[in-house]
Structures are given as C-alpha cells and as structure tokens.
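Thread: Modeling a multi-component assembly for a lab meeting

Hi all, long-time lurker, first post. My supervisor asked me to bring a structural picture of a complex we are working on to next week's group meeting, and I have zero experience with this. I have the sequence lines for every component (470 residues in total). Could someone generate the structure of the whole assembly? Inputs are pasted exactly as I received them:
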Amino acid sequence: MSAKLSVDESRCTGHGRCYTVAPKLLSDDDEGFVTLRGSSMEITDDQLDDAEEAVAACPERAITLTLDN
Amino acid sequence: MTDTSRASGCPVSHHDYTLQRPLFETYELLDAEREQGPFLLNDARPRPFWMITEYEHVLEALQMPDVFSNDVTSALNPGRTTDLLPQHLNPPQHTAMRRVLNRWFAPAAVRRLEPLVLRRCVELIEELRPQGGCDLVADFAIRFPTDLFLATLNLPVSDGGTFLKHVENVFTGFRGQQLEQAAASTQWFRGYFDQAVADREREPRDTETDFISRLLVSQLGGEPIPRDDVITICYTAMLAGLDTTRSALGYIFHHLARDPGLRHRLTAQPELWPRAVEEFVRLYPLVFTDGRQVTRDIDFHGLQLRQGDVVWLGLASANHDPKKFTDPHAFDLEREQLSHHLSFGAGPHRCLGMHLARHELVIAVTEWHKRIPDYELATADQLYERGGQLSIDRLPLRWTV
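Re: Modeling a multi-component assembly
Sure thing. I ran the full set together rather than chain by chain. Output:
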C-alpha cells in the first residue's frame, strides 16, 4: 500500500494547524504556510497517523490523504 | 441596498448586535436565531442584512471571496468610516499585500519575539501579585497586548499607556456611536504612525527587524507601498491586535475563575495550555460576525442573494453549531476537530495575527497560573459585554497573598 499527502494551494491560507499537530511530518515556511503547500509527498506506514491528524486538523479542508492499494 | 421584500418565508431578526448586553446574552441570542433557520433577515440596523448562521455555510462563504467581497467587512456598520488594510482589499491585491505582511506574523517571527513576550508578561504579573487582586481587564489584559503590539512593530513600549483611550474611542465609533470622538482618535493614531514613518524615512532601520522600514522598501506589483497605506496597515494591526487579545483574556479568566477543577488540572499539566487556549478561542469568539458584500446575484443554498446585498457571516453561531461541534457550549479539551473553529475566520482573510494571538494567550495563562494559581471573582454584580465586537467590561479578581 502507498499513501500520498497533498496540500491544495488555493485552499490553504496558513492556519498552521497541520504542522502544529504533526511537527515530525510537516514544517512551516517564513510566511507561516506549510512547506508542502501546493505539492504532495509520499507517506510511509509509520507516518500515516501523523498524516491523518494533519488532515483532520485543517479548518480549510485543504489537505488530502490518498491511499492506493 | 438589501431588498427586504425577498424575505418572505425567511425568519426576521430584530436584534441590534451593536448593543451592550449582560455577559453571554449575545451568544444566547445567536443560538436562538440559528435554531430558527440557516438564514435570517436582520432589520435592526439602518441597512438590513442577511444572516448566515450555520457552520458549513459560513465556512463556504468565507472561502468564496469572488462572491462575498470585502468591499463590506461589517454587516453592522457597512459604511466605511475608517480605511483598513489589508482587510478592505480583495484578491489579487489582497494576496500581494498579505505576502508582505505574513512573515511578520508567522510562527517563525512569533518565536523570535518569545523572550520579550515572556519577560513582559512576567513583569506585569509580578507587579499585580502582591496586590491580592486586580481588574484583570484593565490591569493586565490590555496592557500585555499593547506592549507586544508595540514590540512587534519595533515601536517604544512606553507609548502603550497613551494608546488605550484612543482604542476605546475608535471601537465606540465602530458601533456607530460618538463618531466625532472616534474620528479624532483615528487622526491621533494616524499622526502617531505618521511620525514613526517620518522617523524611518529620515533614518532607516534594519528591514529584517523593523516593520515600518520593511514596508517602506517593499513593493506591490512593482510599486512601493504608498506612504498613507503604510500608516493604514499599522493602524489596522493595532486595532486588530489589542482589543481582541484583551477580550479573549477576559473571557478565559472569567471561565477559569469559576472552574477551579479545570484551573487546577491545567496548572498541574501546563503542556495542556495550548489546547485549552484553542478550545477557549472556539468557545468564546469575540469577532462574532464577519461582514461581506455580494458581488453578483446567486442562489446560496436556497437564499436568493442579489449583487450589493450585505451578509453577516455568523462566526460565533458557527462555533456553537451543534451540527458541527457536539455539546458546543461545553469546554472540552478532548474535543475532536477543535481547530475547526472560525474565531480567526477562514479563507484568504483569516486573521493575520492568529499565531501571535495564540502565543500571547498561551504565555499569559501559563505564566499567570505558575504565579497566581488560585483566584476568584471579586464581585457578585452583573457583568456586561460590549456589542459589535465582544469584550467584558471589567473582571475584578482577588487572591490570597
């Protein structure tokens, strides 16, 4: 199974909840946006919990986790 | 003009939300209105407006700046009496100015300010502790953010004392009252910031650490930011940062004064303060409404909106919407999706100062409870909250020295 985490640039407005709840997975840039804004990353099995927490924390629903079996 | 003849079948609200009320009455009225329906027409102000009450609709509207524009930012007072930046801009001009401002208010910038925030907070608390009591609102909750605002902008912290009276006057004006006095105070602020700009034009400071110097060399669309706009940005940041933090601290301390069990738990486990602050911010939204102007005719989930209509986006009503938050009036540290509250707004105009605000609030409650863990309300009198943008008028506390 592989998983991918993406941040929609048009929806992300920099609330910073994702990198606050998942600091090992995500980090912030100088403007306070998650550095993943507008792109995506592969998620390993041991990162899955953090990725799910980041998705759930976003008030703008800007983050999606896609799982491929 | 909002055409009231389209209100057939839509409940009508006659509540004037600019009025001072007994503490928590505003939230009670908003709950009762949301229970009447997702949309109401409010006719209590000179210009009627449509109230959007449910979480999902409010969030969606905040994320649609092309339809819900910041040509109006207050349904209660849609006529512009004061220029605010970047609040009064729409994308793409808004986006460009936010790019310049974001880095001063981003978590990384807030972290750099931490030693100063901590020092000032402890100084204020240590000054109050031997007194055995204080008015939390006047003696702590406004002094702390005023000093931090000035520090953030690299302005003399000693100017804080003069600021407060003028802040009060401006907010009175936002409720449509004592407009001449409000205008005079706005002029006072513009004069103050004009002087700060002039100082830096004469003698530029480090653009990495000095906010105004940075604005003076920043470009928007290849042009420098006009001098007047630099002053407006400073003025807006001041209005946005001082009153809200004061107000949040008032509601938070009111809650904690009456809940010793929670207070003791948080004092014993200070790592819980950030989550507690987030839940307090959800539970007690101060900016309880955001205003917008409709740019084109649209059917919004059954509400027929016309170009030029004014809408009220019910931020507090959304935070207390039981369809979104279970048992919404309970303080719940374990609440799921606690960060989904709309107290800082959402969409492109979400609060620029949110990271600074969270940081200030967490430091204030952490340091306070290290030093004054036990206290109680020192009055049995009815307390009141200001309308327009909520703030507790006073909060007398006492503790054993």
